Amino acid sequence: MKKLHIVGNWKMTLNKEDSIALAEKIKTISKKDNLNIEVAPTSLYINDILKILKESDINVISQNFDFESLGSFTGGICLDQLIELGVSKSILGHSERRSKFNESDDQINSKLETVLKSQLDVIFCFDSYDQVPFDLIKNNLNDNSKIKLTLAYEPTWAIGTGKTASIDHIVEIHTKVKNTLTEYSLQNVPILYGGSVNPSNSRDILSSNNVDGVLVGGASTKFDQLLGIVNSI
Ligand code: PEP
Known about the structure:
With about 230 residues, this protein is of the alpha/beta class.
């Protein structure tokens, strides 16, 4: 049985009260065999959510990080600070960071290099095969037995739109990426799908070939929907 991942990206959609209320509910979700559940709250409340989910089966990760180490970078969040709080993984390159915060491919790839050299794991989002920097990954991730990278295929047009990619399309892209990873001896890198995943489509998506999990935005901020996705496995 393959290991599956369900990752909830809360984006900037919840205020503090709602974030805490959601965390209090999801801490009751118990781990199924071969299922890894993670949530990414907004950075402002990450410490509160970490405390609530400390004893639970749910891992708390970051939505993003900035380039630099501790220093004069107003408004930034660095890997050292996340590590200090006990965060062990971050999302990187989400399409909203690319389109709404103007993060370029070069900037994101440079951050990927930084995080791959750090002790943190990373979920790298891409919206086309060509956006995956396979050489950079290979050069910075030599040991296929200790993979600290997850890829997430997120077609931009499917994010937050209610339009999910067809299973055929998802499998085609995931298989193409997996084949290239295999050529680079990186076949253990999991590949998630993200884009309007909900309890009605999650079972089909999660049981598809070369899909190792889902990255979920909107539905992950509603407890019943998140639970529906978990229970669809
Ligand atoms: C996301 O934010 O990564 C995402 C996939 O959003 P949604 O599930 O709302 O489409």
